[in-house]
Write a structure and sequence with these properties.
Length: about 230
């Protein structure tokens, strides 16, 4: 049996050609999502949009978990919201939290075009306020799924609030946990990087949950409360 001595034994690093192969042999992006991605690419903050394989993963995960009620922290132009909503049943509901009306106006336009606007409730406010309001409304442990992808310095606050909102056995998905590799760069002491490092370490030691960190796009951590 021949072996490839150049191939890492435990992981495969994605270069540009291999990433293109992954996309071409995995991603089945609906045209409405592709249109949104193209429009968003013209914005100064386009880097904030999740990748198409992430969107497909979100939608599949929501289906696999039989999610009925979901939370999103950080909408931007709505690609992740639409991906989640596409995975929900017709009577499913996503509460999408953001503060930027300009970006979420784009999101709502595409939600309507995709026919999922009836599944999404947009709450425009500071996300910590929106999440706390849900708790004040008596929604403790009523959600099956949460996706956190917003300002990094508040990640720990979002995590703690979502733990109170998610049912035992539900899933919290946290984006950007590898932060472009900055998490292992000791010279990077920016607030965002420090916040992500702190949360990653905290979750690893958090006995309330099970976890798995995945090298999908910029890193995703799945958390399942006991």
């Amino acid at each position: 049996m021949s072996t490839n001595t150049n191939k890492p034994s435990k992981f495969t690093a994605l270069n540009a050609p291999l990433y293109e192969y992954l996309v071409q042999h995995s991603v089945r992006e609906p045209e409405v999502l592709a249109q949104l991605r193209r429009e968003t690419s013209q914005l100064d903050m386009a880097i904030m949009q999740i990748s198409p394989e992430q969107g497909q993963f979100l939608s599949l995960l929501v289906k696999l978990l039989n999610v009925q009620d979901a939370i999103e922290v950080g909408v931007f132009t709505g690609y992740s919201s639409m991906s989640i909503a596409m995975g929900l049943p017709q009577n499913g509901k996503l509460i999408a939290c953001d503060i930027n009306k300009e970006w979420t106006d784009i999101a709502q336009r595409y939600w309507r075009e995709a026919g999922v606007e009836n599944k999404i409730e947009l709450r425009l406010d500071l996300a910590v306020n929106s999440l706390q309001n849900m708790l004040d409304e008596g929604k403790q442990h009523q959600f099956d799924f949460a996706f956190i992808d917003a300002d990094k310095t508040n990640y720990k606050n979002y995590y703690e609030l979502c733990l109170q909102l998610i049912k035992p056995g539900g899933v919290i998905l946290i984006d950007n946990v590898l932060w472009g590799g900055a998490v292992i760069d000791d010279s990077d002491q920016s607030d965002d990087t420090l916040a992500i490092r702190k949360l990653n370490k905290f979750i690893y030691n958090d006995s309330r949950v099970e976890l798995s960190m995945l090298p999908v796009a910029d890193g995703l951590t799945l958390v399942r409360p006991h």
